[in-house]
Automatic annotation (TrEMBL), chains A, B, C, D:
Keywords: Aromatic hydrocarbons catabolism, Dioxygenase, Iron, Metal-binding, Oxidoreductase
CDD domains for the chain: BphC-JF8_N_like
PANTHER family in UniProt: LYASE, PUTATIVE-RELATED-RELATED, SLL5075 PROTEIN
InterPro entries: Fosfomycin_Res_Enzymes, Glyas_Bleomycin-R_OHBP_Dase, Glyas_Fos-R_dOase_dom, VOC_core, Xdiol_ring_cleave_dOase_1/2
Name of the protein this chain belongs to: VOC family protein
Family (UniProt): Belongs to the extradiol ring-cleavage dioxygenase family.
Superkingdom classification of source: Bacteria
Pfam families: Glyoxalase (PF00903)
UniProt key word Oxidoreductase: yes
Ranges of residues in domain VOC: 11-123, 153-274
Required cofactor(s): Fe(2+)
Length: 318, 318, 318, 318
């Protein structure tokens, strides 16, 4: 019997977001986050931050309502892809193989315990930097955007779930994520789980959807280079009439600096910076009790209540 | 008739704060703000930030209850001092001349319309940097503190007042302050007035004391070098059990980045950075309506209600 | 006899720069510094930073060679303007009155001791923010640029001079500038003089032109909000092929963080942040000896030798 | 035959530095870097940054001359430790097993191709935070230091080597490091190799020792939270008379912001921030040619020549 941990998933590759306002949403990601368009196809536009290592990190797709299309992860190798697919299929979460999509080869699709669409693949097309975006230093994929919030890259995503325990267990057992931190109820049920496959303290968070919804999306976070740039991002949002749900502050879990907004299509977007990396192979999950969570954010103010109920699609407004 | 504006006050020089917990307060200013002690005398300790141009910016005095001792301003010249004293006396606000205090020569004492103790002087002893604090560059008064929040210097003060209009008029007419910004009620009564004598957008703020108190103190603000350092200050307060009344955010007026805490004696202290300078000689006072003020801080969250009622001495707890 | 100091000049208002490459220079200021165009007329384009309080801070004019057109300062009042004009005329530096230029009323023109063209005026048209640039907070003139280096405003200028002592004396005696810092030779001759009329530690610097030139231009500095933003500016220059003469570092005088580049027309441009303000009315000029200057910049590396010889027009290449 | 990559080393754990001036060196690490002492034993003091996940990251040992004692790495598991030890022994680099040292269990010692002392272990004692250092948020090991440069943790080390190719191959083949970037001569010989086992773009750099020395030490780098904090660190060094070999600037490789100093014992120390993470499983080594390296640092100034010759022990001064 093999007790070695699963180490097949290399990183979060891209996310597909659905939007009922494709033009406004596209303008948000291009002009206010400073992302670049690499491709358009059908009802979808593919975008990347200037520092994204994959070809793109966001597939923005027109749809009747906002929400998550799917989350894609890249495996370490073709072999790791096969291994994960077999295991997931065996456990009954599989949807099946695809021939790939723009920029990547065949992928295996499945859902997590709460029904979010997920996908893994290995073969990926590299980003060929066009001449006008060639950076001064060739170890970067592209020039510093110097536009809007100038986000570097996709950092992490947060799913809303009707059963956080089940969902976080899924990511641990099927995909090899480790639980870095968790918030629990007095009964020991998870209200939020923070999970990672890289040295980042989390690549994925799963929060309890108090609205009773299932398979909804909470937020996607794009990274900037320093806490100071989060403040600049907030200025960009303020000056351009974007709804700021929570002003810059520091999260307790992961200690990342953040600002939360709703993009025009309705999806919650975070711009974040900082936070710690986890190097210890025997990191012990940090558990936050309801008592401890009452203190609010790192510097003492709670997130607005909408943070625990609003997600996309927006059930309340259906 | 002389229409030339009064230009006699050079800058805010120091503030005397009263504390019922002298040791804890002293520890706060020394260890957590990173200020240095230059002198002790009677029940008072005199402190300075590493970048303060006056000999000291804070006189911390033991007292039965927290609050303001007095605010001292320095004039441009001995002549300007005489001129202001004469004018203030003529208008009935004068208390009289003193022989000076530690570090400065004779001063003229008076009160503003709401009864806060004020003082002006010109003659001042220069700070002689002790050898162990000599900076690498001699155009700075001392080494970078590199301790706690490492505040540079006193930046501004905020008085609580039962009648903001009367008080702000006093500072304009008697001391030559200019009104850079104001918040007003629907009836046009000032709820906060921001006033300046330097190029800073405010050296002094006066806020309406909703508790009905008179002559109370709202807060003193110490400056750090950048918005990022305000975040570090918040970390220092978080880690050392200091009550954070309002986490880092950006003020609408002046657009300064701030964090508000209560020092152990009970006085509200702000650590701030940034904000704009005013150079235009015909700057028009910016007026904020109740409607506009409802939006809260720059990035959209209101200050806690205590910000409008808590001051020192703390009337509620008497 | 009036011993009161002259306090007639409120601030540096704008600078006219000449460029033999008008399109490339315009692109630099618009796309890489992030400034906005407010007007075009004849061979000139008028630009402003998003935080500039005057209508514009840069008049960019096509010319055979790079260099300074003129420097304009604004007086505190119409009366102050008359007073300065009379005094300058009396001392033989005057050129005469104009009817004004785009955005400002009648001005008095003159030259300093080294022949740089200067101008003072009071009447000025205010900036009317167009709808698409209206900021979230109305105490700012415009939205945060969020483009390129996103410079806030013109900060200071530096003139090259064949006789720094004579020139700095001119600014002190005729315009009321104060000498905050100076670098001198062993014989006590000024090699650089830093002068201010506002609380900034300098609004103007004058450096010795080792090339033997007269009336040349050294650089203009545009401000960003924090030291961190100077680093971002350097990234913008690096990624866009702009020659960086001196990478980000900290000046000894004024302790401003800087980066120096040549705009495509050849003029040296600085992006700066930080530095201290001077509040003490009896600030004593800080004098740097050749020995002390040998240490280089604050953190120990010298500026390149071109910093002491290159100016515009570029004599060497004529 | 197993083509799976070696993934046995979790992270760089600690470094032992030798110093002929133990008191001055200790003072540097404690007061100027802001590290804390966790233990003293014999001629050694064990120190940690406030964010270090291992019990300590620096063992400072009194010795006749400065230099490297050893570098310690932690494996993912006891099994990984055995596997690495076997493999290294088989290849002839082994020195043998120890019973452990302060804070960790049995370790396997060996040398790299150039003779640097290395060690791997798995069993490690956890840091028990003393009450007075308990942080506000329990997912951090300790309070933010708020003293001196306030370094967070050990970030990476740089070895000097007589044969970079051989040494970097050793780390790849024996320890599973990957080559993220390299600088080469026109003949294709490595002059610097950057290697990583975590998502950081390098945990280890190996540079060619132009002095002809063997097994020498180049530098150890401690991390701060943002580029801005590197500037503050430079201020701390400037104000306290520490020799700054290279002022803050940005590295081409890894794009980390840095400042280099010599600690009083003579060892080169870097304070760094930023830099990118590598997530792509098929990252292609970035190769810098001599032509490209001529451009100097990211923003265009070369490192001083001592950077390529000075190491510890200091051969030149023997």
């Amino acid at each position: 019997m093999n007790h070695e941990p699963i180490r097949d998933i290399a990183h979060l590759a891209h996310i597909e977001l659905l939007t009922p306002k494709p033009n406004e949403s596209l303008n948000f990601f291009k002009e206010l986050l400073g992302m670049g368009v690499v491709h358009s196809e059908g009802q979808s536009v593919f975008l990347r931050g200037w520092g994204d290592q994959p070809l793109y990190s966001l597939k923005l797709t027109e749809a009747k309502q906002a929400g998550l299309g799917h989350v894609a992860m890249r495996t370490f190798s073709p072999y790791a892809l096969e291994e994960r697919a077999l295991d997931i299929e065996k456990n009954g979460f599989g949807l099946g193989w695809t021939d790939g999509d723009y920029g990547h080869g065949r992928s295996y699709q499945f859902t997590d315990a709460d029904g979010h669409n997920l996908e893994i693949y290995y073969e990926a097309e590299k980003y060929i930097t066009p001449d006008h975006l060639k950076p001064g230093l060739k170890n970067m994929p592209a020039k510093y955007a110097a536009k809007g919030a100038s986000v570097t890259q996709l950092d992490h995503i947060n799913l809303f779930s009707s059963d956080v325990d089940a969902d976080s267990l899924f990511f641990r057992n099927q995909l090899g994520f480790k639980l870095s931190e968790q918030a629990i109820t007095d009964d020991g049920k998870q209200t939020t789980a923070w999970l990672h496959v890289t040295n980042k303290s989390y690549d994925l968070a799963i929060s309890h959807d108090k609205s009773g919804g299932k398979g909804r999306f909470h937020h996607a976070a794009f990274k900037v280079e320093s806490p100071e740039m989060v403040l600049r991002a907030a200025d960009v949002f303020l000056d351009n009439g974007i709804f700021i749900e929570a002003p810059p502050n520091k999260h307790v879990a992961g200690q990342t600096m953040f600002v939360y907004v709703y993009e025009p299509g309705g999806n919650r977007i975070e711009v974040c910076a900082g936070g710690f990396l986890i190097f210890s192979p025997d990191w012990e999950t940090v558990t936050w009790t309801p008592e401890e969570r009452k203190k609010g954010l790192a510097w003492g103010t709670p997130l607005p209540s909408t943070f625990h109920t609003y997600g996309t699609p927006d059930i309340a407004n259906r």
